[in-house]
Amino acid sequence: MTKPPRPRTESQADQARSVRRPAKPEPTPKAELDSLTESEAADQLADLARQIAHHDAAYHTRDAPEIADADYDALRRRNAAIEARFPALIRPDSPSTRIGGAPESGFAKLRHRVPMLSLDNAFGNIEFAEFCARAKRFLGRTEPLTFVAEPKIDGLSINLTYQHGRFVRGATRGDGTEGEDVTANLRTMKSIPETLHGNAPELIEIRGEVFMTKADFLALNQAQAETGAKVFANPRNAAAGSLRQLDVKITAGRPLSLFAYAQGESSEPVAATHWEYLDRLKTWGFDVNPLSRRLGSETDAENFQTDIALQRSGLGYDIDGVVYKIDDLALQRRLGFVGRAPRWAIAWKFPAEQAMTVLRDIRIQVGRTGALTPVAELEPINVGGVLVARATLHNEDEIARKDIRIGDTVVLQRAGDVIPQIVSVVTDRRPDGSKPYVFPELCPACGSNAARPPGEVVRRCTAGLICPAQRVERLIHFVSRPAFDIDGLGDKTIQEFYTEGWLHGPADLFRLPDREAEIAAREGWGKTSARNLSRAIRARRTIPLERFIYALGIRRIGATNARLLARHYASFANWRTQMLAATTIGSDERLQLGSITGIGPSIAEELTDFFGEARNIAALDQLAAELDIQDAAQASGTDSPIAGKIVVFTGTLQTMTRPEAKATAESLGAKVTDSVSKKTDIVIVGADAGSKAHKATELGVRTVTEAEWQDLLG
Ligand code: IVH
Hints:
The chain is α+β, with helices and mostly antiparallel strands.
């Protein structure tokens, strides 16, 4: 694992307010291990192998870790301790002989000529001294060791193969034996030379860490958030997600960097020491971390550790420790490997940056989509060089799980060096009379009902049309192309008119022509543009029912579901009446919603939540009074362009959910299957699509983007 470890957090009550704790989890108590029977040990090893393999895949393959690093390390330590006590029970699939997650993506597999191994960790001076003593004992020497120290970058490791000085192949680490062929993606990176400068062996493999700087990560996330695309949890995940894109163009647009630091196969020796090897890397054209140093003793190494720890928060990229490598390559060869790690190197990890402070209040933010997000308001505190006054509490379940209460003293941590988190509560310091936090069921921005659909963690305000927190977003959606498509009303203009107080709800848009003179007088407008805007607005007073329904921005009612509803209910009046009836009848009978293919229970729930809020009906009626909403033609499945076609959806869809897409396709007469074969007619390729998209291309099956698919449906 390459991310910063997360420490235990209990019993910190007596410590200073700003604390630094080592990340190492408690070792397995010896007494407890001694009392373990052989069959209990075997069961536990099987269970640990399964758990560790699961978390390896989550971390390495899906870039989506599910547990804290410290908890992961604890699982591995427990496994190692049981194996040490019962060596006969070591399993063929033991986690101590495996690294990372096996590749299972759309990329071709590449076997590494020399396995890509991992590093053992040290969490303090004692463990570092033990590492040195072990190495010296093994070599039978007493004189001090010379090390090369390199900051341990939190990214993902890759192997680059050069033949006759040319870059021919590049792979991720994968499970250490086999990785993913990401050659094309790596070629887009400026820091990977296409040809090596100067002399190079006929064949050489160079290894290093691909990473994203903190500034690039924040900018990427901001851009992603603005377009509603995936936001990454930390720079490491952003780097991994950016490199492992099937569409090379996406990788090319992402700011990835590389520091080279190790060698794989080489047709001839290139250096006698690691320090010399780093020099050769620089000559060939690679970036080597400029903070790397050659150190002549253990004491120098300890000083270096402190020095880098002090610089850590000011660096432009995340590091989670320092790697110490014995410099002499002949000694490295003699020392060799044990299990999955070399005897000649160690990763000395930093403690996670933590601090304690008081939770003053919990503020509920209402997002532009109506999501209620709890935010911790904290007594400001310095955590690892950054002043923190706020932290996310994620959602109401998280608050309940950690039993976080206003007035509590909490332990804070910066995860991935960027986003502060509340790790736990110091219950000994809880004020008398404190009460569990009750999450609001009303929207703090507008007072309307905030509903939490079954199975979801997020509570949302149901009054999208009138809620001030959501208004601007809703208005932008309302005038967007697939909705009312009003020319001349861009996001900026909406925001501007909203700030002016002219737009409270969508009905106000149709009153803008009354302000034509005022608009004409505004900076950047003029008579002609103001007149054109009035025309564009008037032209949209007549609107097809499906566009009208879509424009309301009800959650889960994308263009496709809006079309299904419009075709089913035919007229606005009919739709309104039936929906209102649906909010008053029992949930089993929830109108005919269930009978409209594609409208499942969760969508029905969103509709009834919307119609259950009186303020929404008022806004809807005001709007309808401004408009001529045209009836829709009734559905027919046989004359559609996709009738009888076999289709497969792959990747993440942006405008509809997977079940929604499937149901629409089926209602239009297509057959939706899960796997691609020669019989498949069309594959709809969403974002981050994997092997199915590849297979379709291989088999010559037609692939279309989501937008092309929508066009096809008409
Ligand atoms: S050397 C056989 N050097 O740490 C040793 N690794 O925990 C190969 N890492 O997989 C690795 N910075 O992803 C090495 N300067 C550095 C490193 C480094 C980061 C990562 C790398 C490796 C992991 C091992």
